[in-house]
Amino acid sequence: MTHSPAADGQPARVVHLTNPNGMTVSLMDIGATWLSCTLPVNGECREVLLRSPDMAAHLQQSAYFGAIVGRYANRIGGSQFRLNGVLFRISANEGGNSLHGGQFGFDKRRWDITGQSAQAVTFRLYSENGDQGYPGNLEVAVTYRLTDDNAVEISYQAEGDQDCPVNLTNHAYFNLAGAGSGAKSLDHELQLHASYYLPTRPDLIPTGAHLAVQGTSFDFRQRKTIGRDFLSEPDQVTAGGYDHAWLFDATRCDGQAVVATLISPDQRVTMQMATTKPAVQFYAGNFLAGTPGALPQNSAAVHDAAAADLEDDNETDKEKMAVQHYEYQQHDGLALETQYLPDGPNHPEWGSCSGILLAGEPYQHRTVYRFIY
Questions:
Q1: Cβ atoms of 329 and 21 closer than 8 Å
Q2: Known catalytic residues?
Q3: Contact indicator for 171, 65 with CB cutoff of 8 Å
Q4: Cα distance between residue 122 and residue 127, in whole Å
Q5: CA 370, CA 261: separation in Å to the nearest integer?
Q6: What span, in angstroms and rounded, lies between the C-alpha atoms of 334 and 282?
Q7: 50 φ, ψ to 5°?
Q8: Is 91 exposed, middle or buried (0-12, 13-18, 19+ CB in 10 A)?
């Protein structure tokens, strides 16, 4: 991706982070995107993130692979909301609804790299008043930090000069068995410390209800295989599978307590998640089929392959950084997007979960993905 131009005609900048244990993370300035995450599992580099094979495919995909999405993650019904008595119409990009910030959301923007070290990088973005229809000027910073204990910490900061919906998240897709391993999201085990979920309409906008998970297929309070109850009741069928928001038990949303645990089908990798956000959108990858993807051709090249898309004739470099183009299938990965509630700006009765940032108020959140292997 370092050689092909992005939407602004310039190549992406890719940053590589490495910790003393041999875990690696790669990120790029387009969308402040988390491109790659490799773990040394039994002597092999295991790539646990899905991504596009090159910049051209990345610009065309609609899966939001690893990107920071905003101003408002998830969906806003009718691409409009009323705030302080004013009706705001925002960019529609999924039928009549707005998804992940609209047609030119934060995932498509080039972020400035304002700080960098061996194990951390900070991206900044300025979103002007009226950007995609949202009110106020907004300054955003996102810092990724790879810790010595194999965690990826994502810290979000923002401040605006007008009241505005703000809901930032990362849209990474995980396959803890390894990208291209043949394992599916449905083969993973998942636990969510969440007692309520939001059912949706057919267009995936929440109905407005908060339903108890007890006695339903949405109950992940005890660890279970994702596929066990898949498509077993109408609320799942309506959405094509798991693609819903779960409300975490509030006492756990301190950025330290584990709110979700994901375990690979081979039981060799566990991911524990902590966050300060009140909810998570768990998406089982129900619509990934046909999306161009990338598979490293050898495990030693995985880390460098995050920046692949070479256009020169240096065969040594091509071999080192080669990726195999691959067409993703349904459920090749899953997303766990920590956030405020979808369509929150249209539900002021949801209080702080509605995702409204007041003018001059600091937006500060943190999500941690810790890998155990």
A1: no
A2: 171, 337
A3: yes
A4: 17
A5: 9
A6: 7
A7: -90, 150
A8: middle
Contact yes or no for 365/248 (Cβ under 8 A): no
Provide the b/e sequence for 206-245 (b: ≥16 CB within 10 Å): beeebeebeeebbbbeeeeebbebbbeeebbebbebbbbb
Task: Fill in the amino acid letter for 320.
Answer: K
Other beta carbons within 10 angstroms of residue 313's beta carbon come to 7
What are the structure tokens assigned to 214, written together? Answer: 């007890």
Compute how many other C-beta atoms are within 10 angstroms of the C-beta atom of residue 371: 22
Structure letter (DSSP) for residue 177: T
Task: For residue 165, give both structure tokens.
Answer: 């919906």
Angstrom distance (rounded) from CA 139 to CA 162: 12
Mean pLDDT of 254-262: 98
What tokens does 20 get?
């003393």
**DSSP secondary structure code for residue 344 in this structure:** G
Element (H, E) at 236: helix 234-239
Predicted confidence band of residue 258 (pLDDT cuts 50, 70, 90): very high
What are the distances in angstroms from CA 309 to CA 52, 279, 329, 369?
A: 10, 36, 22, 28
- Tell me, what's the pLDDT at 316? 33
Q: What confidence category does residue 306 fall into, taking pLDDT thresholds of 50, 70 and 90?
A: very low
Query: Can you say how many angstroms the Cα of residue 59 is from the centroid of all Cα atoms in its chain?
Result: 16
Beta bridge partners of 191: 261
